[in-house]
Design brief:
Strand content: 5-15%
Strand order of the largest sheet: 2-3-5-4-6-7-9-10
CATH class: Alpha Beta
InterPro entries: AB_hydrolase_1 (IPR000073), AB_hydrolase_fold (IPR029058), Epox_hydrolase-like (IPR000639)
Structural class: alpha/beta
Distance between the termini: 33 Å
Oligomer: single chain
Protein name: AB hydrolase-1 domain-containing protein
Number of strands: 10
Pfam family, one: Abhydrolase_1
Radius of gyration: 20 Å
Organism: Chlorella vulgaris
Keywords: Hydrolase, Membrane, Transmembrane, Transmembrane helix
Length: 366
């Protein structure tokens, strides 16, 4: 069988204009990174011990959130193995593949795995660079086409193993971005597509107004070397708890991300090389929006309307991505259903699990 994504992963240079655009993005990132550098310097001067502190969680063993889960590693590309957690391997049930976002892990889908395990074999993976998956070196390893090729390869292997022809694909945040692209490039693999809190890829930059630019400041600041890693790791990865569990960005439901799960996220984020790998997602995103292009992936996104029935769920109180990014989605998707979750944050599947599960179940039945 031809390697999944072998053509999809190809990128080409955009030439001088693209490099000039890239330099402009770097300049914006530098300006936005200055306050971060000042804040870090102030903390290092006033609270050096707490700022530099990193708790060692390497020996901590957290129990699985559900019983009878199977952990395995699926080879998605040469030298790249993705950690996959399955609810009922070999059961013959229809497959549901779930892909997390930044800065999450497979267990961000714990509520959905519990809700759908009776009807589906639910498989939650950790993308390259995350958790217990492989962490290749260099920003080029985290280009979007390679991420899409990973998910495509996993989907193909799961389908071949089970003898099934299609599966349900669900993604949140970065996982949703990758799932959009996977659906566009390989629609024949999917029966349904569920997207949480991320627009169709071709709708992001055209809908980038001032409001969204302010929300997306971190994307540009993350272009700087080493500083984003320090920012995300300072104070024993305090950023994780702030982003996931505290206002204004965190879950709006009290206790949605408990202290135990904050610890789980910190353990996953704190693995050697992980902060750089995860920040490289954003560096490669800007690379692909400026100095490089992915012709095969671009053709897949632009060349035909997506035929896979698609459910998009969006948090009304999403602090990272505004609903204006949904404008124009109907131009690219034939069968589209959009649901806005009242009062919900960006972390929809953890913040409003009952609502997400109900909407997803209804979508899958029809």
């Amino acid at each position: 069988m031809k390697a999944a994504g072998s053509d999809l992963s190809a990128v080409t240079s955009t030439g001088l204009i693209g490099w000039c655009r890239w330099a402009g993005y770097q300049a914006v990132g530098f300006v936005l990174a200055v306050p971060i550098a000042i804040e870090l310097l102030f903390k290092l001067i006033t609270k050096p011990r707490s700022t530099l502190y990193r708790k060692d969680r390497n020996t901590v063993v957290f129990p699985d959130p559900l019983p009878d889960l199977t952990h395995e590693w699926i080879e998605a590309a040469p030298g790249i193995k993705l950690h996959a957690v399955r609810t009922s391997k070999g059961s013959g049930k229809p497959l549901m593949l779930m892909v997390h976002g930044f800065p999450e892990a497979w267990f961000s889908w714990r509520h959905q795995m519990a809700a759908f395990r009776d009807e589906y074999e639910v498989v939650a993976i950790e993308m390259r660079g995350y958790g217990e998956s492989s962490r290749p070196q260099g920003r080029a390893a985290y280009r979007l086409p390679s991420l899409v090729a990973d998910v495509t390869a996993v989907a193909q292997q799961l389908l071949e193993e089970s003898g099934q022809e299609q599966l349900v694909l669900a993604g949140h945040d970065w996982g949703a971005y990758v799932c959009w692209c996977t659906a566009a490039a390989s629609p024949h693999l999917l029966s349904k597509l569920a997207i949480l809190c991320v627009p169709y890829p071709l709708c992001f930059f055209p809908n980038m107004d001032w409001d969204q630019f302010c929300r997306s400041w971190y994307i540009f600041a993350f272009q700087m070397p080493w500083l984003p890693e320090w920012y995300c790791s300072a104070g024993d990865y305090a950023m994780l708890e702030a982003v996931l569990a505290r206002p204004p960005t965190g879950c709006t439901t009290p206790g949605a991300v408990t202290p135990e799960y904050v610890e789980r996220y910190k353990q996953a984020f704190g693995r050697p090389g992980t902060p750089t790998a995860l920040i490289n997602y954003y560096r490669s995103l800007i690379d692909l929006a400026s100095r490089y292009k992915a012709p095969a992936l671009d053709r897949a996104l632009r060349g035909r309307r997506l035929q896979v029935p698609t459910l998009v769920m969006w948090g009304e109180k999403d602090h990272a991505l505004g609903q204006q990014l949904l404008r124009g989605t109907e131009k690219y998707v034939d069968s589209l259903r959009v649901e806005v979750l009242a009062g919900c944050s960006h972390w929809a599947q953890q913040d409003r699990p009952a609502e997400v599960n109900k909407l997803l179940a209804d979508f899958l039945r029809h």
